[in-house]
Amino acid sequence: MQTKTKNNHIGRKISRIRELRGMKQETLAEELGISQQAVSNIENSEKVDDAKLEEIAKALGVTKEGIENFSEEAILNIIGNTYHVDNSSAVNYGCTFNPLDKLIDAYEENKKLYERLLQAEKDKVDYLEKLVK
């Protein structure tokens, strides 16, 4: 006994593309001007008419053919064949400054500010002493 594969179930493809795009059914429904239940019905449908499929494709940011030819295996193959880690690249994603230098600079600036504040208080005390005499 053979089981029929549901490889060409357009509704499931729409659902999966929507999920991969990080879109909720409500959002897709708003884009299409229909209810969330209507989107659910579309995603459960094996076939969708061409005009509606064009609208859905536009809302999802893909082509109609992209939906029709969508397959999880193809996506995984593309990712597997194009993603690689190259640790030998000259790009440095670390800090471009030494955090300790920044901390020392802040400490020095704070120290100077404190000394100016202290001098201002001394000047104020001197001025008040002159007024009292």
UniProtKB/TrEMBL annotation:
CDD domains: HTH_XRE. The keyword Transit peptide does not apply. SUPFAM superfamilies: lambda repressor-like DNA-binding domains. The keyword Cell membrane does not apply. This is Helix-turn-helix transcriptional regulator. Keywords: Coiled coil. Residues 100-130 form a coiled coil. InterPro entries: Cro/C1-type_HTH, Lambda_DNA-bd_dom_sf. It holds the Pfam family HTH_3. Residues 14-67 form the HTH cro/C1-type domain.
